[in-house]
Write a structure and sequence with these properties.
Length: 227
């Protein structure tokens, strides 16, 4: 999983304090990359973007974590990479590891056009295991914000853990975080309803090395903004 990006927002009340999520990833630090060394699905999806985009394209990396491998690979390919993460510790590590990219500690809800952290339009975006930090009720809105941040026909690479859960607490590298997931058909429906066409869907079994979580099924969607 990547570190969280999003602050939960509920139209019926004030935002939930997600400081604990950010602090968990601040504390996890470099142990995240050690516990999740095998990221073939994420790397493959990143290579799809590299092959599909010309050098100089702007790419938004949501939940950038330590910047490895996604932001680093995109920057090496000549992309103008902007990474965003809720964790100050992860942003600091990303800046150190990928000096050729731009990183912000920010919430996705603030990134849309006209928002307090409007970063402009992008040719592509990634969200590798960052949407799962939201309760399900917030995920459609997050996807719409991603869509609004993309240029027409912009590309979007997304991954989540396949699980029928909604905002449940789990132990994670000695901390506790809250996560959500979908069965694969439902995830695809939610993504398409937000205005994306799914170009390709794949999945990979994954057993985190030395982490306190059971084996998982990772879902990867390669998408294009529908206009």
């Amino acid at each position: 999983m990547s570190s969280g990006v999003f602050e939960e927002r509920d139209g019926a009340g004030p935002p939930r304090d997600r400081t604990g999520q950010a602090e968990a990833f601040d504390a996890i630090g470099d142990r995240y990359d050690e516990a999740f060394p095998h990221k073939e699905g994420q790397i493959s999806a990143t290579e799809w973007l590299v092959a599909s985009l010309p050098a100089g394209s702007r790419v938004l990396d949501l939940g950038c974590g330590t910047g490895v491998p996604t932001a680093r690979r995109l920057a090496e390919a000549g992309m103008r990479v902007v990474g965003v993460d809720l964790s100050a510790g992860m942003v600091a590590r990303a800046r150190a590891q990928v000096p050729g990219a731009e990183f912000h500690q920010a919430d996705l809800a603030d990134l849309g056009p006209g928002g307090p952290c409007d970063l402009g339009r992008f040719d592509a975006a990634t969200a590798f295991f960052s949407l799962l930090m939201l309760p399900r009720a917030e995920i459609p809105g997050a996807l719409l914000t991603v869509r609004q941040s993309l240029a027409p026909a912009g590309l979007f690479a997304l991954s989540m853990v396949e699980a029928d859960v909604d905002d449940v607490p789990i132990p994670f590298l000695g901390r506790r975080i809250r996560v959500s997931g979908y069965p694969r058909a439902e995830l695809r429906r939610v993504v398409e309803a937000a205005g994306f066409d799914v170009v390709e869907e794949s999945s990979r079994g994954y057993a985190p090395g030395g982490a306190d979580v059971p084996p998982e099924e990772h879902l990867f969607l390669r998408c294009r903004r529908r206009d």
